[in-house]
Specification:
single chain; mainly beta; Immunoglobulin-like; 2 domains; 6-stranded antiparallel sheet; 4-stranded antiparallel sheet; 2 helices
């Protein structure tokens, strides 16, 4: 009888310990699988995406608060291959590549890049186009015109700038008699940017 009481107390103690730990979070395993992304100087409204090598968007998030961004991502379930984080800001796009293989995630250190967006401004009938191009990539510019009658946009100007400088700049004089909407399409580094000008 004494032995039975002793065994019963041991079972009750083990069961109590088991129940006490039943509500403990199992985050340790999940946290170990997460890859932490830290970005400095983000602004509310910036867009963070994860894309694969074919530019297919796997994840998209609009940044909610300005400042530093820190978040853990479980990227281990992604198929083997190359991917990248893309932070789309007002004037630039930051690209952070990484590789997934056998549930292991590795950042491609030193392969981060920044694409500076072209800046388009208009004053009266002049259009100012400028772009910072640290890697001296060409800039393709096309300007289309749509009159107030709502016709389709018609190409009125086209140029590809193969630059040797790190700053690209153009000033275009639009015909003052052609009032309406202008569409400026710029392409560089595999990206297309579209701006509309009304005058």
């Amino acid at each position: 009888m004494k032995k039975l009481m002793k065994n019963t107390l041991v079972i009750v103690a083990l069961f109590t310990a088991l129940l006490a730990n039943a509500n403990a979070p199992l985050n340790n395993l999940n946290d170990a699988r997460k890859t932490t992304l830290t970005l400095d100087n983000v602004k509310q409204g910036d867009i963070l995406r994860i894309k694969n090598n074919y530019n297919v968007v796997i994840y998209k998030e609009k940044i909610k608060t300005s400042g530093n961004y820190i978040k853990g991502f479980d990227l281990t379930e992604l198929p083997k291959g190359d991917y990248y984080f893309e932070l789309n800001k007002d004037s630039e796009i930051n690209i952070i590549p990484f590789h997934v293989s056998n549930s292991l995630v590795a950042y491609k250190s030193g392969k981060e890049s920044t694409i500076f967006k072209p800046s388009i401004k208009s004053i009266e009938n002049k259009v100012y186009i400028s772009k910072l191009s640290l890697n001296q990539k060409p800039l393709d510019i096309k300007v289309y015109y749509e009159n107030f009658e709502g016709d389709d946009f018609n190409l009125i100007y086209s140029e590809t700038i193969n630059n040797d400088a790190k700053n690209i700049g153009r000033v275009l004089n639009l015909d003052e008699k052609l009032e309406g909407t202008y569409k400026v399409v710029t392409k560089t580094e595999g990206r297309t940017f579209v701006d509309y000008i009304q005058f």
